[in-house]
Amino acid sequence: MALQARALYDFRSENPGEISLREHEVLNLCSEQDIEGWLEGINSHGDRGLFPASYVQVIRAAETPPPARYANLPAGGFEPLLPPAAFKPAALEAPPAAAPEPFSLPPAAAGYPFLPPPYGGSYQLSQGSDDDWDDDWDESSTVADEPGSLSSSYPVYEAAGRRASGHYRLSMQSEMSLSSRSRHLAGHFHPPSSSTKSSATVSRNLNRFSTFVKSGGEAFVLGEVSGFVKDGDKLCVVLGPRGPEWQENPYPFQCSIEDPTKQTKFKGMKSYITYKLVSSHTGQQVHRRYKHFDWLYGRLAEKFPVISVPHLPEKQATGRFEEDFISKRRKGLAWWMDHMCSHPVLAQCDAFQHFLTCPSTDEKTWKQGKRKAEKDEMVGANFFLTISVPAGSGAGLDLHQVESQVDGFKAFTKKMEESVLQLNHTANEFARKQVTGFKKEYQKVGYSFKCLSQAFDLDQQAFSAGLNQAIAFTAEAYDAIGDLFADQPRQDLNAVMDLLALYQGHLANFPDIIHVQKGALTKVKESKRHVEEGKMELQKAEGIQERCNIISFATLAEINHFHKIRVRDFKSQMQHFLQQQILFFQKVTQKLEEALHKYDNV
Fold first, then answer.
1. What does the entry list under GO cellular component (predicted)?
2. In terms of CATH, what superfamily is 4-59?
3. What is the rounded CA–CA span in Å between residue 381 and residue 225?
4. Thinking of the domain 255-388, which architecture would CATH place it in?
5. Cα–Cα distance between 163 and 412 in angstroms, integer?
């Protein structure tokens, strides 16, 4: 007989590799050995995956599984129903079955390197750096080390998380009560209660490492955070012709990145590259290293969980000072800066403005701004408190319509990501052929014409001299055309690939953004079900929906901004690409026409 288990409670899968359970459902186990509190099995629908071990009761081969409601009756069978006075413990043939223990996430001793962070925890991302922070721009201490700082009150954990390339620092920040925090740190999960209306609550995600939990979205939706938001921290969503949009920056600006320069310190022992930044709204020049960009990216990715912060150009372990690499990185940083300045929220962020305006030589001001950004309390769950939505529009967001829009965008990003990868591969391959194959083939043709001309030169007849010179000129024309092919990717294809690389970063961000919004919608559905069952007050469910609406407004605003900037970028880049292609073939045509005219006087 196959090893089986009976579900004691309902369980809803929320991550790939998990399966859902219904109470009393019988499952086939793949193994009785649990993996850090999880079992693998097959449910009644034939789906195979993981589920919490504490949510099921293993059925031994010798047992006949009784219904869950009679779990405390004797295992040997059922006695006739007797009045209370006649029902004596001595008549029992076996002790009652043990009640299932509450679910507990395994502590470090059971295989987890750390306890999960509480709701509303924030994370800090950094892509790493190919330059150290050992210069005069910073000091060894961080905000987490300073007494009295927000982060120093809690332990810090390291975990993999939101962005594809980076390290995250999860700091335990929450507005939960002391008793609620202690219950969570103990790892206990209480199954849904069927008691009175006032005691029913929306369940928390079992996976405490999901983006929805780590971003603080869950804590916000469940109403576990509160705080004072200054007017300068408010982020406004307005209703535009395409739906929710971020309120436009009243003072738009641009910033150029030019003049990459190699610098040294420690008497030439350490070298690095600085870039000159000039903002149009201040006209001020500052110089920044790549590590400063990297620090800023980490702060912004931590602060804005539902905004797609553009990824920085990739690092390179070797050849960091080669001209081609420096030029490519500068162009990538220019695209990054363009998207930063174009975003209504990111462009006005204090950390970004500090990065653009702090004088390169003012060490004290830089450190003050850096510490202020690192001590920013409007991160994680608190970030959602800063979002202001149109007045009276909460009821105007239809749950099913929002879900349909988000699902449509999810399908769009998946298809776009596949297309971007395909185009990037094709462009890379075509550029490689132009630089090597096409150049070689055209120059091979030119060499053949040159050999023919040299053979004709052996004829000393005067009337053949013009033909010989024309053929020799044709050989030179084909040799020059080969050089044109080799140089052309710098003019058109490389720019297309730089844009594709930037959008690959955006497309990698959106699954986590969508996950936060989906998690909020799930909580709303659960609260509505509780109201229908009479387990939750309507006012509490409306509060959950109102907070979910805030996340939905922000998500839809970010989606609309992505589409707006996408159309702008690809229109401009395709125009540039075709213009460069036309110029290229005009140059080729000109070379061929010049060669053709050499035969007119032969």
1. cytoplasmic vesicle membrane; plasma membrane
2. SH3 Domains (2.30.30.40)
3. 7
4. 2-Layer Sandwich (3.30)
5. 20
d(CA 216, CA 168): 14
Confirm whether residue 371 is marked as ligand binding: no
pTM of the model: 0.67
Q: Which of 27, 85, 102 is nearest to 59 (CA)?
A: 27
Residue type, 409: F
> Does 291 appear as a known binding residue?
yes
pLDDT tens-digit profile of 25-80?
998 988 887 777 788 889 888 888 888 888 888 887 654 444 444 344 444 443 44
C-alpha distances in angstroms, 248 versus 47, 235, 237, 341, 557?
47, 10, 9, 11, 11
Residue partners of 540: CB distance under 8 A and separation at least 6? 527
**CA pseudo-torsion sign 394, 396, 511, 413:** negative
Spatial CA neighbour of 112 closest among 216, 208, 213: 208
The whole-number average pLDDT for the span 512-517 is 93
69 is in an annotated binding site: no
Q: What secondary structure does DSSP assign to 233-281, as a single string?
A: G-EEEEEETTEEEEPPPSS---EEEEEEEEEEETTTTEEEEEEEEEETT
Mean pLDDT of 154-165: 36
For the segment 82-95, what is each residue's pLDDT rounded down to a tens digit?
A: 333 333 333 333 44
Taking residue 14's Cβ as centre, other Cβ atoms within 10 Å add up to: 16
Among residues 248, 269, 272, the alpha carbon closest in space to that of 261 is found at: 272
CA–CA gap between residue 345 and residue 233 (Å, rounded): 10
Is residue 551 within 8 A of residue 216, CB to CB? The reply is: no
Give how far the C-alpha of residue 380 lies from the chain's centroid of Cα atoms, to the nearest Å.
15
> Domain 399-598: which topology?
Substrate Binding Domain Of Dnak; Chain:A; Domain 2 (1.20.1270)
